[in-house]
Amino acid sequence: MAASMRLLVRRAVRLSHRNITLTAAGAAARSGCCRGPSVCRCFSDEAEDRSTHFGFETVSETEKAKRVYKVFENVAQKYDIMNDAMSLGIHRVWKDALLHVMHPQPGAQLLDVAGGTGDIAFRFLEYIRLQEERQKRRAARSSQTPSWQDISNNYSTEDESRESRAVVCDINKEMLKVGKQKADSLGVSAGLSWVVGDAEELPFDDDQFDIYTIAFGIRNVTHIDQALQEALRVLKPGGRFMCLEFSKVNNPILSSIYDAYSFQMIPVIGEVIAGDWKSYQYLVESIRKFPNQEEFKGMIEDAGFYCVKYYNLTGGVVALHSGFKL
Amino acid sequence: MAALLRGLRAGRTLRGLSSGKTGPTSRVVAAPSAVNPQCSNLNRGFHRAALRLQDESKSDKPPSSSSSSSSSSTTYHEHYQATEHDTAAEASQHDSASDPAAEQPERPNTSYQDQSGEHGEEYETEEQLQSRILTAALEFVPLHGWSMEAIAAGAETLGLSSASTGMFYNGAGDLVLHFIAHCNSQLTEILAEQHKQVQLGQAEPKKTADFLREAVETRLRMYIPYIETWPQAMSILLLPHNIPDSLKHLSSMVDDIWYYAGDRSTDMNWYTKRAVLTGIYNTTELVMLQDSSPDFQDTWSFLDNRIQDVVNMASSAKQVQSTGEAVVQGLMGAAVTLKNLTGLNQRR
User: Fold this and answer.
1) pLDDT (0 to 100) of residue A1
2) What is the mean pLDDT of chain B?
3) Please, are residues A325 and A235 in contact by the beta-carbon 8 Å criterion?
């Protein structure tokens, strides 16, 4: 009896507390209705008001991220074919040039951001495989008659060498799916991982990777400086940041040809092959909106990279920027 | 507050690490393999500290990125710093204060470093960092040869990732040229020291031939640790884009040797002397490559013979000149006598 009475009392107290809090909240709401929600609205308005470019349009920043996601979701299946068609196959040369300049050593860890279909990661693993073969051949040639000591040393050192690894990170699941299918068909699986992540907020710890690459992806990022700072964060000291991106063509003749080709031909090819005019219109417009070589070099230096250098490929159509975290 | 906690946790792990245990917290550890990044970051801290000892001022990455990237190398000194300056402390300060035992005298400097911030000093640091990497790479040359792998291994001993070898656009050429410049500066120091000794009267001045012989021998002895791979280095130096630099190093070395030998000539002798010494040096180097005698005795005797040849040639050149003059005078006298005899000399 007493126990149940105590329970009842407790329940009543709890209810009354809840009522009090409710009424208090209600009063606060009523009195602060002018301030509270409007304050919240002010904050969200600010985020919405901060506008950026989406191609030649001006959209809010949250809007841009969503639209970029949709663009790549649409083009994911035909992405590689469209690359070949639009660049007449030269994009392979650009990506090979990136690897050549990178010259990765065996044991290096690569993070390929906006790597989508995995072109850079595949080339990286292939390059390292060839390097290791070359090293083994050189070692075999130099030690024609190895002593027993050397042979036993070789056996022990083989396990210690670090395996090189490539991580492909992309914000878009469709692109990663296409990449995984490509990996399966190529039979590449060792040392390759696929991670969903946002370039402005990478899901990795600090000081993880030797090389960070972003090929034709950074112009789609809403806050480029944040992406650069994330790159600095996840790189090991001495690590290298490499960015392949469309840039300004300085030669006026080449520039006019390039402009005509971009705006007249590419959306048409996009419509014919991928059935998507608007995405490729966005693509060529976003190229025009991206800062030029020197400006981007300045941005990379501002983020904290050293020895920043850029190489113009194909007369400036594509620029390869490289910086070091020292 | 967060910085304090981070610092405390980092300090605890560092003390744990130094006492031999490995128990890093998730916040501090950056990689799956626990101990190595800690060690490499610690080494990086040591080397950064060594760099601080060399050059006074540092201007480094902006605080926002540095405070996040240096988390694994922070020690209880970051906590110490964090209590004083907030997150405005630079990565350099953290690293320079990383070793408590060695850095006791360094601590008063950290606030001085805070004031620096010029871009010019950063570039100097990049070159110094590059030369440090190359110096560290030299010890891997017997293993990997003069190549990017040696530079990568050198960078890794400094705690930098192997990707930093991308800074060396000339690759192996950079390594060889750096080594040559290093040897040349060592030689210049030795010669200057000897010169000072002679000036102070503590040593006897040597004869030119002996001086040259000893200078060339000293210089070539610096190659002995790398003699196995030296043919590869020489071939790298002969690549077209490396030839200007290698010639520059060679000519400056020969110039230094002659200067300390006492040559102050201002005429054609300047060129001939240097050309002769260049020839001697190059041929001796080639002999040294395939010399298998103990302590390269054959090479030094070859060097002796060449210098002796030059000395002999110099004296015989003088003799030839005086003989030639005498002969010419004799011939002139004979011609005048003949003209007198035949009466051609008389004026009509």
Assistant:
1) 57
2) 74
3) yes
A145 is an annotated ligand-binding site residue: no
Cβ separation of B164 and A239 shorter than 8 Å?
yes
Q: Is A306 close to B72, i.e. CB distance below 8 A?
A: no
* Least Cα separation, residue B37 to chain A (angstroms): 9
A240 vs B contacts (CB less than 8 Å): 161, 163-164, 166
Which residues are CB-neighbours of B7 under 8 A, at least 6 positions away? B74, B75, B76, B78, B79, B80, B82
Is A112 annotated as belonging to a binding site?
A: no
Give, in order, the Cα–Cα distances in Å from A316 to each of A252, A280, A281: 11, 20, 20
Give the closest-approach CA distance of B287 to chain A in angstroms.
23
**Nearest chain B alpha carbon to A213:** B163
Residue A274 marked ligand-binding:
no
DSSP3 helix / strand / coil % (chain A, rounded to 5): 60, 20, 20
ipTM of the complex: 0.72
d(CA B282, CA B89): 53
Q: Higher pLDDT residue, A151 or B37?
A: A151
Q: Is the pLDDT of residue B138 over 50?
A: yes
**B73-93 mean pLDDT:** 42
**Using CA atoms in the order B151, B156, B162, B167, what is the torsion angle rounded to 10 degrees?**
-50
**Portion of chain B with pLDDT greater than 70, in percent:** 64
- In chain A, the residue whose alpha carbon lies closest to the alpha carbon of B122 is A306
Judged against a pLDDT cut of 90, whether residue B303 lies above it is answered with yes
Q: Is the pLDDT of residue A210 over 70?
A: yes
Q: Does the CB of B128 have a partner CB in chain A at under 8 Å? A: no
Q: What are the DSSP calls for B43-88, one per residue? A: HHHHHHHHHHHHSS----S-HHHHHHHGGGG--HHHHHHHHHS-TT
Nearest chain B residue to A304, by CA:
B61
Q: Which of A206, A208, A305 to mutate to test the interface with B (most CBs of B within 10 A)?
A: A206
Calpha distance B14→B100 (Å, rounded): 11
Higher pLDDT, B190 or B108: B190
Q: Is A170 annotated as a binding residue?
A: yes
Q: Name which of A102, A304, A326 is nearest B126 (Cβ-Cβ).
A: A326
B29 touches chain A (CB under 8 A): yes
Contact B267, B210 (CB under 8 A): no
Q: What is the DSSP letter of A220?
A: G
The answer to whether residue A50 scores a pLDDT higher than 60 is: yes
- Which pLDDT band, with edges at 50, 70 and 90, does B108 fall under? very low
User: What is the reported pLDDT for B203?
Assistant: 83
Quote the pTM value.
Answer: 0.68
Residue among B104, B28, B37, B94 nearest B60 (CA): B94
Distance of CA A204 to CAs A86, A235, A241, B128, B218, Å?
Answer: 34, 10, 16, 31, 53
Write the pLDDT tens digit of every residue in A96-110. Answer: 999 999 999 888 999
Cα nearest neighbour of A100 on chain B? B166
Query: CA angle at residue A86 from A297 to A180, to 5 degrees?
Result: 80
Q: What is the pLDDT of residue A148?
A: 73
**Are B30 and A238 an interchain contact pair (Cβ–Cβ within 8 Å)?**
no
According to DSSP, the β-strands at A165-170 and A109-113 are: parallel
Averaged pLDDT for residues A153-162: 59
Inter-chain contact B62–A302, Cβ cutoff 8 Å? yes
